[in-house]
Amino acid sequence: MPRHHEIPAIPENMVLGTFDAARPPVLTVASGDTVTLHAHPAGGRATLHPDPARVPADLLHALDTLPRGLGPHFMTGPVHVEGAEPGDMLQVDILDLEFRLDWGFVSILPLLGTLPDEFTEYETVHADIDAARGTCRLPWGTELPLAPFFGILGTAPPAAWGPVGSAVPRAFGGNMDNKELTVGTTLYLPVFNAGGGFYAGDGHGVQGDGEVCITALETGLTGTVRLTVRKDLRDAWPFAETPTDLMSIGLHESLDEAMRQAVRGMIRLVCDRTSLTRNQAYMLCSLAGNLRITQTVDGNKGVHMMLPKAALATA
């Protein structure tokens, strides 16, 4: 029978800014088990809420304890999934997301974002999160609906790569900042090392496609996922599906190439799930597929395509 596990929010269960296949697991689970994990927001002391009473002690402890890595993100993990071997896929069913904080922050930072040369008056603002109402309120009064997701979901990178910074999304997933990866979505990640080495972090309260200023509403989240080894799937690249859509994912420093990756990926998904030829799948993507800019600020830019599963039906 599947078991449920929880990873407490203590420094021993987290890493700051670096993926590394050599890092030992913080938890070992069986395929099909569920895991609840806690994640702190990205950033450092400069982004903390100005009211000390609203900053939890475990976040301060993590900031004081964890050595700085190659990127700015707290990540919980890695989780070792028994039976996962290189060449498999790890199925990540996102079952639940809850807020750990009643605030989040948004920043404009030096040399980052989509328009770094135009926005040089750097600042961080804080928004109040009302989880019960499902809204956040920005300092100037705008209220937005919350739509939480983990910006980082990934497996450990290939061992030959050595330590890898958390900022740039790659073939193992990582900092994809894809707002579609929320409750009800299933993400499929390539496995490059025995056990997979699953990480999650970088909680976002709400984000627009593009994440243009460099941050979403950065906050702390608690998430529950189901981790399942898929030996029947062979893919060297992440993809996903929602209850209604297939989702292909492109990640590249060129937005054009990220778009091409997303189109090729969807063609492959359609051909895998139907009897359509590659030509027919390409035409279907042109009629029913929707390309979206995931993010433009993480080194490798992101484009994802959403295609309704209903469009796969044939007479």
UniProtKB/TrEMBL annotation:
Coiled-coil intervals: none
Superkingdom field: Bacteria
One Pfam family in the UniProt entry: FmdA_AmdA
SUPFAM superfamilies, alphabetized: Acetamidase/Formamidase-like
Name of this chain's protein: Acetamidase/formamidase
Organism, scientific name: Methylobacterium radiotolerans
